[in-house]
Amino acid sequence: MDVQPISGASAGAGRSGSGTGKGLLALLLGALLLLVTACGGSDSASGGEGGEKPKGGDAVKNAASQAVVTVAPKDGAASVATSGALKVTAEKGKLTTVTVADSKGNRVEGKLAGDGASWEPVRHLAGGTKYKVHAVAEDAEGRESAKDTTFTTLVPKNTFIGHYTPEDGSTVGVGMPVSINFTRGITDPGAVEKAIKVTAVPSVPIEGHWFGNDRLDFRPEKYWAAGTKVTVQLNLDGVEGRPGVYGKQQKTVTFTVGRSQVSTVDASAKTMKVVRDGKLIKTIPITAGAPSTTTYNGQMVISEKYKVTRMNGATVGFGGEYDIKDVPHAMRLSTSGTFVHGNYWASRSTFGSANVSHGCVGLRDVRGAYDGKTPAAWFYNQSIIGDVVVVKNSKDKQIQPENGLNGWNMPWSEWIK
């Protein structure tokens, strides 16, 4: 059969709808293919968009940090030692942030090594306390890595505290040291002393000195200036003062130094001159220790005051020589029993003319301490804890620094050793 070619208007008209639609569709598909090819470009061969692997700078930025943070003790550790156990380190990087805090939010002060590779606390931790550690390190490319852990310190079975003087909030004389007596003998005095901070306003260097293994006193080189504000921070909680024995005290104590009063007893002249803020305000006739029971020389600090007290010779090595149940206006100057006090049993003429006491400094007084006008009553009312009484020209030795609050009798060069 012969095939005839399609020609003429009638033939074209009969097939135009179908032919034109297919052509248009082909053109659209071709354009779409070109558009997809243009968007993908040559990258389509390497994975295209979404499957592309980072290159160059982008690859470095998206890589994990090379810095590795390590915290000791391990996360969740219990019964951790309060000293020497906590340390944060970084490998292949430097620490940028280290935060250690207890459950109350109190932060632990620490020290970062110069190269940024490690961090340690500057002081001991508290006992029986849960701590949270947050540490961040940065590698050479500035990428950070973090670690968060928790641990709990040991609960001490054996503890100690320090009994301190002066009292919190008190006003004291210029000779008042900070004196702390511990309930257990201390075998690591460095750790304990490091945990106690004494500061003053106006500022002055303050140093501690140990008397034996259970007493630590702090003082400046010279008497405090009048008006000084002193703060004592006892951060003993968790300090291992001796093997297996830990402090359990966390306390801040403040006191104020009042006016300056220094009274000088001349045992030979049998007088006491009272100097207030550099001015002599009164000279009082006294009686000091008898030739066989002389009064110590030296600088002594009033540590206790009693309007009336009992003095029994048997308690200070004098047997039954005396037992006076109502000694008036008594103020302690030494642990061994030296007082400045009222005396009602000696005649009025004794004061200023004879030394008849068992080592104390006696001032004229009345029995019952009812007369506020006697020399003893006046001095008692004018004195506060921490005032200084200096005894000179007595035929006795100088009082030992540890006998009472009398560290002023030790040279500064020896005190700071």
Structure description:
This protein has 417 residues and is mainly beta. It has three domains: 63-153, Immunoglobulin-like; 158-257, Immunoglobulin-like; 261-415, L,D-transpeptidase catalytic domain-like (Beta Barrel). 14% of the residues lie in helices and 37% in strands. It has a five-stranded mixed sheet with strand order 22-21-20-28-23, with no helix packed on it. A hairpin with a 4-residue loop joins strand 14 and strand 15 (215-219). The longest helix is centred in the N-terminal third of the chain and has 33 residues, at 8-40. Residues 261-392 form the L,D-TPase catalytic domain. Pathway: Glycan biosynthesis; Cell wall biogenesis; peptidoglycan biosynthesis.
Can I get a quick summary?
By secondary structure, the protein is mostly beta strands. It contains 5 helices and 28 strands.
Keyword list:
mainly beta, Immunoglobulin-like, L,D-transpeptidase catalytic domain-like, 3 domains, 5-stranded mixed β-sheet, 5 helices, 28 strands, 14% helix, elongated, disordered N terminus
Summed up, the helix count is: 5
CATH topology name of the largest domain, in short, is: L,D-transpeptidase catalytic domain-like
Report the principal-axis shape: elongated
Q: How many structural domains does the protein architecture include?
A: 3
The CATH superfamily of the largest domain is identified as: L,D-transpeptidase catalytic domain-like
Low-confidence stretches: 1-51
Average of per-residue pLDDT values: 89
Give the termini distance in whole angstroms. Answer: 132 Å
